[in-house]
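Margin note: ligand = 6-O-phosphoryl inosine monophosphate.
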Amino acid sequence: MKIDVLLGLQWGDEGKGKIVDVLTPDYDIIARFQGGPNAGHTIIFDGKKFILHTIPSGIFSSTSQNVVGNGVILDPFIMQKELNNLDTNNIPARDRLFISRKAHLITPSHRLLDAAYEKAKGKEKIGSTLKGIGPAYTDKVARLGLRIGDIHETGFREKFDKIRDMHMRIIESFGFNPGDFELDDMSFSDYESAWFEALGIFDDLHMVNSEYFINNALAEGKKVLAEGAQGSMLDIDFGTYPFVTSSNTICAGVCAGLGVSPQKIGEVFGVFKAYCTRVGSGPFPSELLDENGDLIRETGREFGSTTGRPRRCGWLDLVALNYAIMLNGVTKLFMMKTDVLSPFTELDVCTSYSIGGELTREIPFDLCSEKIEPVYTTLPGWNRNIDSLENNKQIPDTLNDYISYIEKNTGIPIKIVSIGPDRTQTLFRK
Ligand code: GDP
Ligand code: IMO
Ligand code: MG
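Resulting structure:
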């Protein structure tokens, strides 16, 4: 069998969690391959809402196994909170979870360092979720990181102290000290104590060599879905650098983050919103700083799942979407939050960028320093409530025209149209 991949094509928060949960009954294994608790994946069913940060979105199905792959970085304190919440709701997550021994740990001083770097940047800050993502991946690449499998090895505490001291020296070199920052409303030393206590969660979880776990499952004919975090425009190599996250969010990240070969990649499901959002700083060519942007934010409840920050909103950007489709080899598109555009009588779609009077359909080298004017095509809106449509036949013609326009301009079929946050508000197209 091949491994299917589901990932975000924009700046994150496309609705990946919802769709992974919808597709989970078709899969034996759901596996996260990159990112960490900077992710916030929302799943809503039976009147209940869950936001997952580290745990894959297949956790609600009794028939699926959920893998946290080697490419993920994990904060045990945050994961413990997620597990406790699932316990409270009688979801037996511990039985369904399998953690790679090679996944790296985010330590409390990684989080301090994240906060110090952001504070030192002042106005230039990335708008990080402050979960320690950048510093933890930095230490992984610098070959200083601590992996889950190291926890019970001799010398773990010495290694931990060594990198902690190194981080403290960097923090002091910025003129800060640990007392300047709070971590989840706790002092650094309280957080550190809670973090060490949370390491106990690994005693109750299945630890695996996930590269064998996944490849053996594929060899046995099991169906595996890789669940992306963030989005392609936040990719460390191809996103709007430096306003990006610190991992490869694109399809190539699946090979390195789970240990599967490129020949094993099957379908690539690209998830996008019918418009665009971005949370944090950085370029966003089709951003709307007017009442239309406010209307999208209010209708779509566009506030961050991880940080609660208001998301910046704008029209659909086909230049960025086609770039992401190219980078990922997308085979099927899933359009999310379509219902959010219902109040509009007209919809703009960005089809090219004008840079210094020249038109282009390519993302320039540096989106940050170029002065980009988005060029729009205006399409009619459907301008009616669609959140309780039951099948494709009920889709208004104007919405079908919007779908066809995107399909024509990307060359990829839209197979799912999401019309609300609940599991059931999902239309499948042939
Ligand atoms: P993810 O990070 O890609 O999983 O997305 P988030 O969960 O951060 O953000 C998506 C938000 O939109 C969540 O609040 C979802 O409950 C919600 N959502 C998902 N699909 C739809 C949809 O089709 N319509 C509406 N109105 N909300 C949706
Ligand atoms: P999901 O998986 C949206 C953004 C942050 C910031 C930048 C770097 O829910 O789609 P980091 O904490 O990684 O150092 O932040 O990336 N960011 C996200 N934006 N959705 C996410 O994840 C994000 N994860 C990180 O806002 O701009
Ligand atoms: Mg999110």
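The longest strand covers residues 346-355.
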